[in-house]
Amino acid sequence: MSESRRVQDFNRHVASGGKVEATDWMPEEYRRAVGRFVEMHANSELMGVLPEREWILRAPTLKRKLALSAKVQDEVGHAQLLYRVAEDLGKPREAMLADLLAGKTKFHNVFHYPTHSWADVGIIAWLVDAAAIVAQQALRESSYAPYGRTMKKICWEESVHILHGRDVVLTMMNGTARQRALVQDALERWWGPLMQMHGPRTDPAKDRDLAWRIKNKDNETLRQEFLTVYVPRLREIGLQPPDPELRQDPDSGTWRYTEPDWKELYAVVTGHGPRSAERLEFRRLNYAETQWVRDTVLAAPLAA
Amino acid sequence: MPGQPMQVYEVFRREREGGPMQHAGNLLAPDPELASHYAREFYGRRQESVRLWIVPRAAIVDLDDPDLLQPPFDRSFKKPVGYSTEIKAKLAQARSRAGTGKAGEIQ
Amino acid sequence: MTTGGPGTTGEPAASVNQFDPETKQALANLLLATADDEFVIGFWDSEWTGIAPLLEEDVAFASLAQDEIGHAQALYQLLADLEGGDPDELAFGRRPEEYRHARLLDHPRTDWAFSVARRFLYDTADAARLDALVASAHAPLAGVVAKMRREETYHLLHMHAWLERLATGGPEPRSRLVAAMERLWPDALCVLAGVEGDALLVEAGVLAEPLAAVRRRWLAGLAPELERLGLPAPPADPPAGCRGPDRSDDFRWLWEQFTMVRRSDPEAVW
Description:
The complex is a heterotrimer of chains A (304), B (107) and C (270).
Chain A: H1 3-15, H2 28-58, H3 62-87, H4 93-101, H5 118-139, H6 145-173, H7 177-197, H8 208-211, H9 219-235, E1 247-248, E2 255-256, H10 262-272, H11 276-289, H12 291-297
Antiparallel strand pairs in A: 1-2
Chain B: E1 7-14, E2 22-29, H1 32-44, E3 51-56, H2 66-69, H3 81-98
Antiparallel strand pairs in B: 1-2, 1-3
Chain C: H1 14-18, H2 21-46, H3 55-83, H4 87-92, H5 112-131, H6 139-168, H7 171-188, H8 198-203, H9 211-229, H10 249-264
């Protein structure tokens, strides 16, 4: 069978919902595309730990400390699961970590921003995780089966995080005036990045990840799903998303909104966000500090 | 012991008493002892498993040859679906001959 | 006096009502010291979340830290049942000088070898302490201790695994481990020291033996492993000021962090 015929059969297979396993034959392009997709996802889970981990120390009750510690632990676990998936496609974990730390690979925009207060912790755990889960639920049906299965486990674990986040926000909204002000302030700072999180509208015909069903829903669909569920939930407790244009068309159900700042998104994901450099530097330092453990006790193979 | 290269370990878990061992995922570890601790973390820290098997990937014997697992010749004689249509038709015929049942019903 | 409220084991603490005030105070001292130990080590070790040497180990170490916070919560509840207040108030509502954790926990997390050494020393000492409490005449405490011992099984397995690997992993891990243990040993003895009135607790059947005896038992239990691995031996006696009120600058920093949000709005519920 010719190579191109093989590729055509493969494309038909995935386009009609067929699955691919790590040991199956796959076109090099598909292997690279999945690898990049999963690697960016893994990087995001790992970098996502950083905005939240400083608040583990600052959590104001024993219950919140346990919950936040468990949440961040889960994110580290998700990074591990996703790096394992990407590694089985051929790129060693050490190489992926090296590329992340060198600024060569990307991670999602939201993790480049600072946190200011405990209210940020609630908003991130509720809304950022919710926006992520909208995408992650769709990824459970990925053509790349190891990724789909991992997403099922991740979605199951993430459901607790959203509940924790909502609980933190509700507690504050039912609390003092100062607490309510902190939450509204946090929402106003996080709204822009949240709206950018799913990415700009893309032309489905040109999106290879969609064609190969690595992902199954386009960016705008995901953003609309998020808004449909979460805008009412924000408004019903007295929180106002800071977008005067934000409204749902009564007939189509489509949400209209101020166009997100795509220039900001591009600048941020290419490493120019408010905390991008600082967080990568923090990771680099810590990674270097623990290299002796990997070199001796764990004897991890060196980066390719 | 000096550092050993990391290996992939596959983890299987039983969710509740009487259930089967099911593949849950995999992890990297330098040796079986730490692999078992890590398996506990990833597949047991939320009390979600009653048992875990941790197996080096290298120890798994893998069979995925479609010639062996999906051989092409008809095998309906080995499966219930190979009989149900035939039986339905013949039962209808027998009942009608015996004057006992409604055509097309299986009892 | 226990009221059987949320968080208690529901056992009527008849024994506590028979205690004289000095014995009750000694019990409060023990509960506070133990709870503070678990609380503070849980905080230091949770700092490794996200930055441990290996992703898999990151998740494991985070579990150990969470377990300690859970244990602290249960112990603060026992103390609240005895003296009033609530666990969060006890955990977060004191000045740094009022914390009664062992000096072992005044040190920051430092490097991986230091954290492993400190955890190893703490978990093994704590196991000896729990052994002396498992048959406690104070039934609520015995109940909590029984649960803690089960969770500590995993801690001991994990920390023995790391001690072994660092001690035999080559010159670099070994030298870091030895240096850490030499620094930590004097303060480690404080885990089983510094609780006023422990003799009264032995008389009342709350504690099986005086802390000094628990300490000897702990050290005797560790000796074979330390010898086999060629690791430093402990000094004879604990230093002065085992459980405060003098606290390290590192602990004061930690206190600033963990009380920051509560202090920002003392009226608020979080």
